[in-house]
Amino acid sequence: MVPIFCELKEELEALYFSEDSEQQEFVVNLPGYSNREKANIGPTFGRIVEKAGLLTIERPFDNMRMSRSNEVYRKFGAFAESQWIGHSSRVRADHYLMLTDEDFKLAAQWKTPALESTGPVERTERKQGKSSLMTAQV
């Protein structure tokens, strides 16, 4: 069981309930797709994208899966991501997790907490081979 996320549900419902809709079970009916082991929907998907006048994306299914995997991981955590996307945490770490433009924006805005707000700083100094603990207020 995988949830249909609201942005996809809204698009599907808009298509299903539009005046032009025949209210069929499938959004895109691909010939031969009933035999999923032999179906290659990539070329058909490419023709649909081209016909719609959209830009083509290299490896669209991999990229869509990777994007949703990251979104689910960030919003719902590792367990839900593994269950809903269908791979192990090792596969996720090796192949799916990625930094996004949003990560870089957040990092650029992040401010390191001021040291004075953390209280005294303790550091160890070596003097003539001996260790001594010195506390200094910064």
Give a structural overview.
This protein has 138 residues and is mainly alpha-helical. The protein has one domain. The chain contains 6 helices and 2 strands. It has a two-stranded antiparallel sheet. The N and C termini lie far apart (55 Å). The C terminus is likely disordered.
Question: Descriptors for this entry?
Answer:
disordered C terminus; mainly alpha; two-stranded antiparallel sheet; 138 residues
SSE topology:
Layout (H helix, E strand, L loop, with lengths): L5 H11 L24 H11 L8 H17 L1 H9 L2 H8 L4 H9 L11 E7 L2 E7 L2
Helix pairs in contact: 3-4
Unreliable parts: 129-138
What about the largest sheet?
2 strands, antiparallel
Structural class: mainly alpha
Strand order of the largest sheet: 1-2
Q: Give the total of domains.
A: 1
Order of helices and strands: HHHHHHEE
**How would the global form be characterised?**
extended
Mean pLDDT: 78
Q: Helical amount among residues, as a percent range?
A: 40-55%
Distance between the termini: 55 Å
Total number of beta strands: 2
**Tally of helical runs:** 6
Amount of beta strand: 5-15%
Q: Over the alpha carbons, how many angstroms does the gyration radius reach?
A: 26 Å
